[in-house]
Here is the input.
Amino acid sequence: MSARFFIIRTGFDPKRLDDPVSIEKTLRRLAREARAHAKADESGFKVGAAGLVQGPGTKPAVVLGWNDETENGNGLHAEDSMVAKMAPNERFLRLLVVGQNEQLLTPCGNCRDVLAKRTTEVSEILIQPNPSTPPFWFKVNGLLPNTHVPWGDITTTSADSDDHRLFTEALRLMKDRPYNPHRQRKFEAVAILSREGNVYPATSLPNASYHNQSAVGSGIGATDSARERYIVKVLSISSEQGLEKPVFPSGRCLQQLYEFGQVHGNDIAVIAAHPSGKSWLAMLSNLFPYPFGPRDVGINVAQYT
Ligand SMILES: [Zn+2]
Here is the structure.
């Protein structure tokens, strides 16, 4: 009996690069094979991913990934695992992600952050937001935080009293001895407004592993501890915020906001503010299009109001 090798990366015939139907067929088949390797003891939700990649002057290849979970939630997603098999100069041409029940998945917010560095303007992902209509190729850039938001979706905020409270609280924490010993590039303070009218400020909590607790995560933790799970608005001041265009929270942060938005089924206003007071507002539904959420894994969170 011969051992069966499983594929983690394989070549792709350059002559087929202009044939999206053939690419889809190959990526689906290989993503399903990848899914068979998934370790999903916690979620019970196996995921496989396949990406057609190419670097400058190099031959195209397909890289595969699958989720590999740990008990404490620090495991790899299929997209992380796929990116780990790419050479540093390779970028995605096309990719797709297949879930436990054959459905095509859009990447979670964290994976959107991971994919951002490996994406070009032509990278596309196969998505199927509505199971009763056919899937279609969609620009990956259109899913990424701070790259896709059409300027028309953003309004410069008027300083109403709630916004002023949020801004004052976030700025106070940003300036008052923030814990930032590792001087990481992006440091952030947020203030979250609950439906009850309370304000919950928080800053990023970096640590030496660079797997930081985000300010949004800390802020949501505070609202949850008070059992105020209806988030109306979040204001963020980032160390990377300039005066020209907004810097909204990362994909990981948007994922956490989306989860809580699903509890009450509400959209959330997100404000990116500069310390000078200049600010921009967009709705979470615009910042996090085609979201991945509890419903994708068959869970209804409405009982947690
Ligand atoms: Zn993910």
Remarks:
- The mean pLDDT is 93.
- The chain has two domains: 9-143, 151-304.
- Residues 151-304 form a domain with the Cytidine Deaminase; domain 2 fold (CATH 3.40.140.10).
- The helical segments are 20-35, 78-83, 109-116, 161-175, 215-225, 251-264, 284-287.
